Amino acid sequence: MSTAAFTEDLVAKSYDRTLLRRLLTYLRPYQAAVAVSFLLIVVMAGLDLVGPYLTKVAIDRYITKGDAPGLARVAALYLLTLLGAFAVRYGQVYILQMTGQKVMLDMRRQIFGHLQRLHVGFFDRNPVGRLMTRVTTDVDAVNELFTSGVVTVFGDLFTLLGIMGVMTAMNPKLALVTFSVIPFFFVITNWFRQGSRQSFREVRKWVARINAFLQENLTGMSVVQLFRREGRNRDAFAAINRAHADANVSQIFYYAVFYPAIDLLAAVAVAMILLYGGARVLAGTLTLGALVAFVQYSERFWRPISDLSEKFNILQAAMASSERIFTLLDSPAEVVSPPRPALLAQVRGRVAFEDVSFAYVPSQWVLRDVDFTVEAGRSVALVGATGAGKTTIISLLARFYDVQAGRVSLDGIDVKDLDPAQLRSSLALVLQDVHLFSGTIASNIRLGSPIPDEKVREAARAVHAHRFIEALPEGYQTEVRERGATLSVGQKQLLSFARALAHDPRVLILDEATSSVDTETEALIQDALKVLLRGRTAIVIAHRLSTIQNVDEILVMHKGRIRERGTHQQLLAQRGIYWRLYQLQYKDQEVLAGGEAELPA
Ligand SMILES: Nc1ncnc2c1ncn2[C@@H]1O[C@H](COP(=O)(O)OP(=O)(O)OP(=O)(O)O)[C@@H](O)[C@H]1O
Ligand SMILES: [Mg+2]
Q1: Residue 39 pLDDT > 80, yes or no?
Q2: What would be the CATH architecture of the domain defined by 20-330?
C-alpha cells in the first residue's frame, strides 16, 4: 500500500470516529435503555455458552454412567437456559429497536427544524429532492444500525471471546486445532468486504439515480407526453435500470461465494475436530462429551464473524448518510435573528430602502443604489421589465436575503435588528405564484393563524373570492388537492388576496397578480385591490399599468436601478420609460405584458 493511500485510510478512520462520536450523542437521552440493552447482550452471550457445556455434562456425567434422573435434571436446566435466552433476546431486541425509533424521531425533527431556520437563499442552491433524501433515506440508513443488528454484533464479539475462552479451558490443543482455520477465514472475509463494499456503493448510487429520474419525469409527465419524449425516456430509464440490476448481480456474486465458503471452512473445522479429537477420545485423553461440546462451539463460532463482515457494509452506509445529515445540520442559517431584537410596540408601516445594493451571487449586482421611502399608509408601485429586480426588492424587505450595502428599514429600524417573526407578521405577501398547502380552502386562508370563521368569510367576500368558494362542492371545507391543481389561476389569486386580508397586515406587498385572468376577473381583482390597500402601506408590483394608476408614487426600475419616479401623470409628462411602456400597452387597446416592452438601455 502506498503511503498516500495509507494516510488517506487513516484520515478516513479518524473521520469515521468523529462521526461515530457525534452519532452517539443521539443516544444520550436514552442512556438507561442503551445500558440495559448492552447488559442483556452480555447476558445473552453468556447464555449462548451454556448449551454446549450442558451437553458435555449430560454425556460425560449422566449418559455414559446411565444416570437417568441426573440426565433429566440437566435437560431441565438446558430448557431453562433456552427460555432464559428467549426472554433476554426479546427484551434486548425490543429495547434496542425502540431506541432506534426514538433516535430517528429526534433526528428527523432536528433536520426539519433546521431546514425551517435556513435562509431562502439556501434553497436556491439545494434541490428539494436532495433535501428530502436527507430526512427520509439517510435517516433510515442510520436506523439500519439498530434494525439490522450492527449494534448486536458487538455482543457477538463477547460470544466469540467467550467461546475461545471456554474451548481453551476445556482442551488447549484441540482449541488450537480449531483456531487453525482462522487465517483462511480472514482471507475470505477480506476479499468479501472489499468486493461487496464496492458493489454495495454501486447499488446505492444507481438507486439514487432511479429515484432522481423518476421524480423528474413523473412530475413533468405532461411535458413528457406533450413533447413525445416517452420513447427516449423509456430508453434512458432502461439503461439506468439495467445498471442497477448489474450492480445488484455483482453484489449477489460476493454473497453467493462468501456464505458457502464460510460454511465450508466451518465444516473443515468440524472435520478437524472430529479427526483430532476423535483420536483423543479413542486414546482416552478426551471425553466424548467434550468432543461433542467442541463441535457445537465451533458451529457457533463462525456466525458472529461472518455477521460482522456483512454488517460492515451497513455500517459504512450509515456513516456516509450521517455525514450528509451532519453537513446539512451544520450549514449555517445566514439570515439570523439578532441576539436582542428591537421590538416595535406598534408597527406603523413606514418602509425605507436607503442606497441598497444587492447581489444573489457575489459581485453580480441585481440591485444598485435603490433608494425610496413609503410612508405609513401610502402606496408605491414598482414597474419595469422582466428581471429588473422588482421581486428582489420585496424579498429584501421580508429579509429572505440580507443586503450587501445600504439599509432596509421598517418604521426606521433596520430589518436586521428586528425579530424576523415580528417583521414578517407585519407583512403580507401576495406572490407571483400562489402556494397552496394540502387542507381545506378555509385552512389555506388561515394558514394556521387563529382567525375565526366569520373573518375568513368576510375577507373572502371583500376580495370577491366568496362567490367561487361557495360554488365549490363543500364550500370553505373543500379539500385543496395537489397544491390547488383543481383551482384556476385566477381563483388561486383571489384566494391569496383573501389570505392576505384575513391576516390584516400593516404592509401589503403584491407581486404581479393580474397577469393571467379574464377581463371580468380582472375587474373583480381591481376592486379587491382597493379593499386590500385601504389604510395600509402597500407595495404593488405590476405589469399592467392599469392596476396602479391610483398609487401615490410609481417607481420605474430598469436593470436594478430606479430610473424614474413620480405619479402616473408626472411620469407620462416626462415622456421617458414609463411613457413608452404606457404607449405600448395601450396602443390598439391591446394589453401587453410590461416585461416584453422594449426599453432604452
Ligand atoms: N434566487 C436567485 N438567485 C440568483 N439570481 C436570482 C435569483 N432570483 C432572481 N435572480 C436574478 O435577479 C434578477 C432580478 O430578478 P427579479 O426576480 O427581482 O426580477 P423581477 O423584476 O421580479 O422580474 P419579473 O418581472 O419577471 O418577475 C434577475 O436577473 C434574476 O436572474
Ligand atoms: Mg418578479
Answers
A1: yes
A2: Up-down Bundle (1.20)
Mean pLDDT of the chain: 85
Retrieve residue 199's grid coordinates: 458493489
- Residues 6 or more apart whose Cβ sits within 8 Å of residue 43: 88
The string of pLDDT tens digits covering residues 476-504 is 999 887 767 778 887 888 888 899 889 88
* Interval between CA 464 and ligand 1 midpoint (Å): 31
d(CA 384, CA 375): 22
**What pTM did the predictor assign?**
0.76
Atom of ligand 1 nearest to the CA of 120: 1
Among protein residues, the one with the nearest Cα to ligand 1's atom 30 is: 387
What is the Cα–Cα distance from 117 to 447, expressed in whole angstroms? 18
Q: Buried b / exposed e across 76-98, counting CB within 10 Å, b at 16+?
A: eebeebeeebeebbebbbebbee
Give nearest CA residue, ligand 1 atom 13: 387
pLDDT at 156 exceeding the cut of 80? no
| Residue with CA closest to ligand 1 atom 19 | 387
User: Can you give the pLDDT at residue 492?
Assistant: 86
Q: Residue 431 CA: which ligand is closest?
A: 2
* Ligand 1 centroid to residue 392 C-alpha, Å: 6
Ligand nearest to the CA of 596: 1
**387: CA distance to ligand 2 center in Å?**
7
What are the residue ranges spanned by the domains of the chain?
A: 20-330, 350-426+552-601
Contact assessment for residue 99 and residue 33, using Cβ atoms and an 8 Å cutoff: yes
Q: Which positions ≥6 away from 52 have C-beta within 8 Å?
A: 292, 293, 294, 296, 297, 300
pLDDT confidence bin for 601, thresholds 50/70/90: very low
CA 387 – ligand 1 centroid, Å:
5
List, chain by chain if needed, residues with CB within 6 Å of any ligand 1 atom.
124, 360-361, 366, 384, 386-392, 595
Q: For residue 179, what are the CA distances in angstroms to 160, 184, 259, 425, 558?
A: 12, 10, 19, 72, 82
Q: How far is the CA of 365 from the centre of ligand 1 (A)?
A: 11
d(C-alpha 87, C-alpha 84), whole Å: 5
DSSP bridge pairs for 508: 428, 538
Write out pLDDT tens, residues 408-425.
999 999 999 998 888 988
Element (H, E) at 24: helix 3-25
3-state secondary structure of 408: strand
Rounded distance from Cα 595 to ligand 2 centre (Å): 10
Give the Cα separation of 175 and 173 in Å (integer).
5
Say what angle helices 288-330 and 31-57 make with each other, to 10 degrees: 160
User: CA distances (Å), 395 to each of 60, 124, 424, 512, in order?
Assistant: 85, 13, 11, 14
CATH code at 350-426+552-601: 3.40.50.300
Determine the pLDDT at residue 238: 96
Give the ligand whose atoms come closest to the C-alpha of residue 386. 1
DSSP code per residue over 322-379: HHHHHHHHHSPPSS---SS-B--SS----EEEEEEEEESSTT-EEEEEEEEEE-TT-E
